[in-house]
Amino acid sequence: MKDTMLCRRMFLKSSAFFAATLLGAKSAFAKIVDGNEAGTLAEGKLSLYNLNLNERLTVTYRNAMGEYCQEALQALNWLFRCHYTNEMTKMDLRVIEYLNRLDNTLGGNNEIHIISGYRSPAYNAMLRSKSKGVAKDSLHMKGRAIDLAIPSFGLDQIRRTALTLAAGGVGYYPQPGFVHIDSGNFRTWG
Questions:
Q1: Which long-range contacts (C-beta less than 8 Å, at least 24 apart) are formed by 6-10?
Q2: CA 29, 34, 36, 39 torsion: positive or negative?
Q3: For strand 169-173 and strand 187-189, is the pairing parallel, antiparallel, or unpaired?
Q4: Which of 112 and 9 is assigned the larger pLDDT?
Q5: What is the pLDDT of residue 44?
Q6: Could you count the other beta carbons within 10 Å of the beta carbon of residue 18?
Q7: Rounded average pLDDT over 127-136
Q8: 23-27, 91-95, 172-176: lowest mean pLDDT where?
């Protein structure tokens, strides 16, 4: 996959969005992500490596005006698919944005190692049979959770940074070597 995905549709929507902004319209999305006004967001760009699938993706999924590229989101959904069943789901944009904010807060352009994104019900049940630490109704099964590591940062620093963002759940798993983030209510464990 190319280093950066550009979409004609994104360009056209962005042009229309920019024109609307000049006329006084504001991006509701921009307010949701960071409380920013339209046009002040950093691009939504991620560099990911899925350890279980041995696949990499560097993608710009949102421009600075809050417009999403559907092809890029589809590529993210595919990369976050369940490695056990090869099933994919539509990942929650809030967890994608949380991941992007985490990366940017840590300096940006980090290669983020994905341990788990979407989990099929079959895979989640198998994990539950082996560990008491796996939730029966895991947010992973809803495309709302990501387990990750960033090799250039210690897990404790990643956890602390995620906690300062307070954008959802933060789980700390130092033994298996990952931090869990999700788009649920803010809470912490581990």
A1: 6/60, 6/69, 7/69, 7/70, 7/71, 7/72, 9/69, 9/70, 10/63, 10/67, 10/68, 10/69
A2: negative
A3: parallel
A4: 112
A5: 97
A6: 13
A7: 87
A8: 23-27
Encoded tokens for 74: 């589809």
Per the listing, tokens 């600075």 go with 64
- 148-182 pLDDT, tens digit each: 999 999 999 999 999 999 999 999 999 999 999 99
The conformation of residue 99, written as its DSSP 8-state character, comes to H
For 106, list phi and psi in degrees, rounded to 5: -90, 20
Q: Quick one: CA dihedral 9, 10, 14, 15, positive or negative?
A: negative
Per-residue CA distances from 92 to 99, 121, 176 (Å) = 11, 17, 25
Q: What pLDDT is recorded for position 53?
A: 97
22 burial via Cβ count (<10 Å: 0-12, 13-18, 19+): exposed
User: What does the alpha-carbon distance between residue 159 and residue 106 come to, in Å, rounded to a whole number?
Assistant: 11
Whole-structure pTM value: 0.80
The per-type count for the chain, helices as H runs and strands as E runs, is: 6, 7
Q: Is the dihedral of CA 147, 149, 154, 158 positive or negative?
A: negative
